[in-house]
């Protein structure tokens, strides 16, 4: 009886199975086809359409180079208290664009030296007021060049560290914040604005002037120091490069976005070469050879935007390919992985000591230059 019931079951199974199997197979085949089509479309979209769009569009390249979006959003430049910082003057200077005709409006924050916050009570948010303060300050001055994806309000924590040593002038690059606004954003354009800003500050004071750049701002600062020397015969007191890269080409290869594309056979033709053809070079390893003042380079090991070995490599180029006796020493400070990442290494308690040591060296180098 048992065997007959077994055979009955197996007969029923073998009758129904052939009917169900095509259903399962059909569903599986459809799912597989959909997945394959989606994967193919994703591949086309990410690894074909994006590189080709990038290669073809200068606007796309410009945006990826500069990422000129506001952070914080809706900045209130005339209301620094909102950002927990006092002793700030918001002012504008006018520069000439590369055509020697169009005027560019550059928005700046002047962040008074910590010890001078109360000295300049009658301050107004005008360039006349900024000029008067520059004429009367006893402190050295630093021009602070910020990086991408922010405006001059963002680096408040860094300002609070370096204002213990300097009076800070922090411009927004053309196309960032309220600077520009309707002029072309380019490496040459920002460098030209920076040279003109430096000359404006120089015309107001005889105090020492340093340049400090963070990230892309470090590349822009170094390029500006080269142009200041070659076209204006001006050498600043010192150059500080915070979380800097070697060249934009190398940065694109090592950036996490670049890594998504760098295995492509057409990576160079679509991603690396087109920005260079359009003048987005940021070749700091070349520009730094023209820097005739001491240089301080700082990088955190846990920087996840610009890997620290690029900063280290930059310091090696600066100290092996420049004449340290005539062009100035190089200081390199690497910070351990404790969470500073790309933007917060100035939180390290060693930074004030490093700045003092650097300023001391810059004053000696300046005396030697005569
Ligand atoms: C000072 O600011 C005024 C008004 O914002 C502007 O017209 C003028 O060009 C500025 N001066 C300089 C030297 O940039
Ligand atoms: C602007 O002026 C500089 C020097 O005064 C000159 O070298 C340059 O060719 C000029 N540019 C244009 C577009 O006229
Ligand atoms: C692509 O560029 C990289 C970095 O500059 C270089 O090392 C490599 O040889 C280039 N590859 C080709 C195929 O040109
Ligand atoms: C650096 O320049 C000085 C002065 O010109 C020269 O005596 C010295 O040999 C140079 N050092 C190097 C490493 O080239």
TrEMBL record:
SUPFAM superfamilies tied to this protein: alpha/beta-Hydrolases (SSF53474)
Ranges where the Serine aminopeptidase S33 domain occurs: 139-264
GO MF entries: monoacylglycerol lipase activity; phosphatidylcholine lysophospholipase activity
InterPro entries named among the record's database cross-references: AB_hydrolase_fold, Hydrolase_4
Residue ranges of the TM segments: 27-54
Keywords associated with the record: Membrane, Transmembrane, Transmembrane helix
One Pfam short name: Hydrolase_4
GO BP: monoacylglycerol catabolic process; phosphatidylserine catabolic process
Gene Ontology CC terms, in alphabetical order: endoplasmic reticulum membrane
Name the record gives this protein: Serine aminopeptidase S33 domain-containing protein
Organism field: Exocentrus adspersus
